Every structure is written in C-alpha cells, then in structure tokens.
Amino acid sequence: LNIDMAVSSHWINPLALRSNVAAGTERQPHSSSPGPSGIIRRPEQEELGFPYPFHRLRSLTRGASAHTMKILSSSLAILALSSATKPNLEHSRSLDTSMQKQQDPTPFKENNAYTKYKHYPPYCSTPEEMETRSVPPLSDATIASKLIHVTAVIRHGARTPWDGAPSYKCWDGYWQSEETGVWNCDLKTYMSPPSASKEKTKTDSSGIEIEEEPDFLFEKTYDALAYSGNRKGTTANLLNGTCLKGQLLLRGYDQELRNGLHLRQAYFFDGDDTLDIAAEDERMRLWDITKPSVAGGISSGFVIGDPNKLMYQEPNLRYRSDDEQRTAMSGQVLLRGLFEKEFLAVGDDETAIIRHHTADYVQDVLSVNDRICPRAHDLWLEAYESDEYKNWAESNSEVKVVKKFVKDELGLDEMPGATLDCLMTTICTDRTLPPALDNYDGSLGPTPYNAFVEDGDVNDMFERIKNVAVKNFTWAYRHNDAAYSKLGMGPLWKEIMTYIRPIVDSTVTSPDGPLPKLHLISGHDTTLMPLLSSLGPDVWDGTEWSHYASMIQIEVHEIKDNTAFPSGYAFRLIYNGEALTSKMVGCPKQSDMCDSQVLLRRVMPFAKFEERNCASSKTSASSETIMDEMKTAAEDMVNEPGGIFLMVLIAVVSMALGGIITFFFIRRPSRNNRPAYHKHTSSILGDLSMRVMEAEPDGAIISAVPAIYGSTNEHGDEKKLDDREEDAII
C-alpha cells in the first residue's frame, strides 16, 4: 500500500522489544521526541508499532524491522472497524492502522503514560496491573487432559466519557476546565472503499474470495466541529474536541494488545523454548504449530476447527462484538496481539481477513436489553423497590457520609449518576481531580455492603465514593439469585453455549459445522458483571467493578481419565487471571477444574433467547388499570348534573393551557445554549446509579443497565421508577 507515513517518531514496534531486551537495551525515556517514558527505543528502526513497555511479556517475533510495511498492511486488514464508519456501501470497511499522527496543539494531549498520580485504581488497568492478569497454569499436574476450546469475553479498553454535558455531570467546574472539559484523541480510523467491480477480486491461499488491496484510504477525523476556543458556541462535538464519546483511547489499545499476548502465552506453542504456559504444559496448547493440525476430539467424534484454514479464519476463530467503536476495536487489537506473527507471515500479495460478527446496536444482547425483553425491567424494578435496597440506600451509615461529603465538598445537592465514570475517566487519563478527591491511595479496596469506614481510619474519599456507587449500581445484578442477570443475559449465554455444549454433550450437534477453537466476544462492563452474577453468589460479590480490558475465560478440557470427571470433559473459569471455578456451586474447592455437567446444569435453564418469558406483567396490568379508571371517571362525570358542560370546560381550558405552554416551550433557548452544568435537586440516593443516557442516531434509546430508585432525567429533574427513560451501555 502506498501510504504517506507521517508517523509520530516515538512510536515503537512491539515485535522488536524481545531482541532489544535480549541485547540489554536500557529502558530509558525518549531522547529525541515527545511521548511516554520508560519505553525501549531503537532510533535506527522505522517505528510503526505501538508504545509498549514489554519488559516482562514475551514479544511475538524477532527482526520485525524488515517487515514494517507488512505490519502496516496487516494492521489495515485486521482492524476493520465497521462500527465506527458506516458509509452507504454494502461491503465498505474502515481500518485502523494504530498510528498516532501529529495534530495541532490542544489543551490536553492524549498520551499513554501513568505519571500524574502515585497510585492508580485497578480499574485503570495500568501496565503493571495488566501484567497480573496472565492466564494461570493448571493447578493439578496429575490430570490427563487436553485443552480444546476457549470462550473469552472481554470488556473494551480505556475510553473517553460516554456522553457530554448536560447529561454527563461530574462536579462543579468539570466542563468549564480546559483539562477535563476538552477531549482530543490520537487514535485514527482509516476507511477503504470496496472494489468497484468483480474483476478486482481474487482468491487467497485458503480459497476465500477477497478484494484486491485498495489504491487509497480515507483518514476519519472527528474535527469538523472541533473546539475552537469559544465555549459559548453550540457547534462542537459532545466532548469539545476530536474524540468520539465513548471512544477507545491509546491506553485502551495498549491494554487489549496485552490481553492478546496473555492468550498467546497461555494457549499458543510455536516451538520457542520459553517459560510460557503453553511451552511448559502440553495440555494447554490450543494451537501447536509444531505438529500437524487435526480436527476433532479424542473420543467424541465432534469437530473443532478446520486444519485446512488459517488459525485466525473461521471456523478456528469466531469474533463477536456489538456495533460500538470501543468494543469492535478492542477485540481487533486483542487479535493483533494474539496472531501478529501469523499476520506478518501473510504474503505480500495477500491480505489477512478476519470475519467480525455484530448486530444492530439497539437489538443486541451483549448487555441486558429490556427493549426486547420488557420483563427484565420488572425484575430491575423489583430489585430497587425491595425493602432491603431501600433500607441500605436510606439508612446505611457509609451512604450518609458519602452523600454529606458530596454536598459539602463538591458542591452538589446529590451525587450524579455519572460519578463513578467521572472519577475513573479523570484519574485513569492523568487529568486533575478536585482537591477533595485527590486522595486515592488504594488502602481501602472494595468493602462489603454493610461496611462503614470510621472517621479517621482512612482519608480516601475517592474510594469511599467509588465503593458506594458500585454497590448501588450492581444491586439488581445479584438480587433474588441474580434473576435480572439470568433473564437479561440468557441470549448471550445461549450464544456461548452453542459452541460449548456440542463438545461436552454427545447428543447435541453444532448447527454451524465445525466448532471454533477460540470464541472471542468483545463487550462492556455491563456484559461481564451480569455474566459473572448468573454463575452463582460466590463467583462475584458485586463490590468491585469490572476494570478496563477485564476478561473472562471459559476453558473446555477433554479428560483422558474419567474417574474424577464422569462426563469426560472439564471446564475452568478464569477472571482477570484468577481461577474462579471452585467458587461455583457443585465444583470441588481444591481444584480449578470442574466437570462440564456442572456448567450445563447452572447455565442451560436460562440460556434462552426467543423462548424466554419476556412479557411484562406490570406494564400490561398498569395500562389496563389506568384505562379502566379513566373510563369509570368519564362515565361518572357524564352522569352527574352539569357533567357534559364540565367536560367541555375542561377540554377548552386544557387546549388554552397547552397552547400557552407550547408557545413558551418553542421560544425557550435550545438545549445546547444552556449552561453546561446543572445541579441535582433530588434528595434520594438514586443518583448513585451510574445511570446513563445515550440516544441512538434514530432517536431511540436502549436499556441495558438497571436504573435505580429515584433516578433523575438528563436535565437533573427527579423522576419516579415507573416514569423511566431507557438506559444505555457504559
């Protein structure tokens, strides 16, 4: 591809780091260009990769400097980003080259360093935190087994705020500050038009018909309404800069690249003599390129993968995300970390192509979607109307302390629904916190629901606020044996088990042919938390939010000795590098592997989609009651003396009043001309919910997370539960 290589000079190829470390290169700050410190740099190398301090993680190949154009072309092919670019072409695709280009000076420049604060919450997923999340080795060396399938569910990496003012409220001065009120992004998206004719297609080595590489690309930049200095203007992006709301940041890119390397270290063996798990333990080799590829299992006759296809092609890999920029790109970057050596091996006349499965955002099921299942909203209401919740929200001593602090120190009548996101997007990007919150030291950690931190024991109000907000939001996920989570995540569980059940149950066949070795699903925090909740009360206690780039893995192992595992198959549940299998009911406490039938018995009763019971009894009953009451009242009025005259009078007065209200409404200033910040007037805890408002392009709003008792609308006005507006994924 003939592309202008206007790349910022502090970018470095992650594939070359291994040889640098082996040669004893020191980890030093850049000497000739701006950028994060602590990154190994080879000035003689054309640097096209990503700033990546891999001083402890194994890189993927040696001698990458000879393949810089291949890195670029493979990146363009791998990171196809249809969710962020929707031109009116059926087969159009957009591609991210993962390069940081020089932009005009901005009030706050994005970088990939964590230098402002002494301590960062685990939520931020710093490089040091990400290194703790490697896949653990099997705990029992005596079990004769073979890993045959992995389902990995990830949360997207670090991102920008999910909305702008006025619906996204943090604290006084947040949107007025040049640092927190303006978001500029360096991660670029490149788009390629499809071929204009069939003559420009060809068949690759695996038999797939592909388009020839494009002759040109389009760089997509969110600067048409970029912030120009006039904060009173209305023609600006929601985040007042070049960032898309909820956009993946460079830090998020780094996090997902590390996730990809974690998977490669655990499941991939290429004959390299290292200390990786796959090299040490043959049982963990999901891919072993030193041996001939074979399809099928040891005894069951099912087929997993296709040895005639490349390892990143279907059916060997299935990649799924919703239609959001941050989730789509996160999964694509992870796959780059996992398969980059193989992408580099693709011939110059070919392009690596990975199929990406997604769906209409408003209809998708990667989070609880009560648009398509109204009964989920009933269960949500049930959780936040319960006496247990109301008692906690109104009487808990820690909640009272937090509410008082928010009012006295932050100048807010109530804690806004975006508080947790405000805290994390600020500290995790090295922006400045208010002085009253600039005290995070990590000493408190998650606390139980009934916890109260005595005054003087800890000065970390940042973490105390965070803990209350997390508990409030996650309440519905665990309430009543996770009924809300089970119903809402039933469709996703069905999708997951479609590729697991045929392996462990000989009576079930795969509807799509060979099963994938790796099933990657890229979603949100509101994907991972209800999934974990549905697996049992001890698997996830609801006191810790799913961090950026969190990952759940469900490994399926075939057992050669059936004594301990009657079904002949075992599964292992891993979350952020910790095996949680023993916390599931029915699994042995002393092992990290459990018979597959335990997973089936737990999940299959609610792993449903269309067959779910989604009818909302509360909605229909309420509507019928209201109509009956209105009909009775009208009949009584007509039967009373002067009733007809009274009805006419009411109609005339209503028309006049409606006309006056409409007149003043259409003459009022537009929403964008209002002050960027509005204080809440609610006196109820409900604003701790992390509730978000995210309108779709067609004006629809999707509900994917539970709203809570006494929440507020986007203008800060208190509203009741039954007068809800839909929620959106954060």
Report on the structure:
It is a single chain. The protein has 730 residues and is α/β, with parallel strands linked by helices. 29% of the residues lie in helices and 9% in strands. Strands 2, 9, 10, 11, 12, 13, 14 and 15 form an eight-stranded mixed beta sheet that branches. It has a three-stranded antiparallel beta sheet with strand order 1-3-6. Strands 4-5 form a two-stranded antiparallel ribbon. Helix 2 runs antiparallel to helix 6 and helix 11 crosses helix 14. The N terminus and C terminus are likely disordered.
Uncertain residue ranges:
1-106, 295-301, 671-730
- Major beta sheet summary: 8 strands, mixed
**Pairing-aware structural class of the strands and helices?**
alpha/beta
Can you tell me the overall shape? globular
Q: What value does the Rg take, in angstroms? A: 27 Å
Average pLDDT over all residues: 74
Could you give the count of β-strands? 15
Portion in beta strands: 5-15%
Distance between the termini: 37 Å
Helix content: 25-40%
Q: How many DSSP helices?
A: 17
Keywords, please?
single chain; 730 residues; alpha/beta; 3-stranded antiparallel β-sheet; 9% strand; disordered N terminus
Task: Please provide a brief summary of the model.
By secondary structure, this protein is of the alpha/beta class. It contains 17 helices and 15 strands.
